[in-house]
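A further point concerns the way the authors explain their paired sequence and structure data. Showing the layout once, in full, would remove most of the difficulty. For illustration, here is how one protein appears when written out as sequence plus structure tokens:
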Amino acid sequence: MTFPQMILLFVAAVFGGTLNSVAGGGTFITLPALIFTSVPPIAANATSTVALWPGSVASTWAYRRELAVQKRGLLVLLLGTSLIGGILGAQLLLGTSQSTFVLLLPYLMLMATVLFTVSPFITKMLRERSTGKTERSWMNWAVMAFAQFVIAIYGGYFGGGIGILMLATLAIMGMENIHEMNGVKTLLTTCINGAAMITFIVRGAVFWPQAILMVVGAILGGYGGAYYARKIEQKWIRLFVIIVGFSMTIYFFVRP
């Protein structure tokens, strides 16, 4: 890792941590930066997950009040399916050849970017129908657990856009308070990424010099850069992420 590469990765992690704390989409910055610095795509995905995970833990703590009112049984069920699905997704990624993942990467980036682009409209729709709590049957719990299991596998494999997928699933299953939904979504995302991260570490898929450097940058971005980023209208930050996401998608489609 050369000095210019270190600077690029650190700056990318700062931006990624900042974006995740105010709008999301940090992966659109950190993953390409790792690939640009000659980290193999699968290892880049694993290393990016490790780099950005501490920020998601902090976000979960911020939603502790919303999580405290949730049914313990449902949370345990969803956490269990998230944990298993995240591990399976990570194992699936590590079992994928580099050439296959390179072919899949632009499509994964495209799907994640589209989900990020439409997420405000979906969130607005969910907020407008937010009227309170709805009792959920055991059948709903089972369907929700299965949907979360599928989302968790995708999350462990790549992860872009899982937040909006979870919000949509929670809404369909009867959860109506948008703040509580965001709390549950953040907790489950942290669990999925944590399970994938442990799998990546155990399997030796993480490039540690890059990961440690980026963890520091992501923490600084999440806790320091976000202070300044919040002074900018979120629509401009989201526009920046969308432009980066589509630009990186196009790049991965046309790269040799």
Notes: The chain has a mean pLDDT of 82.
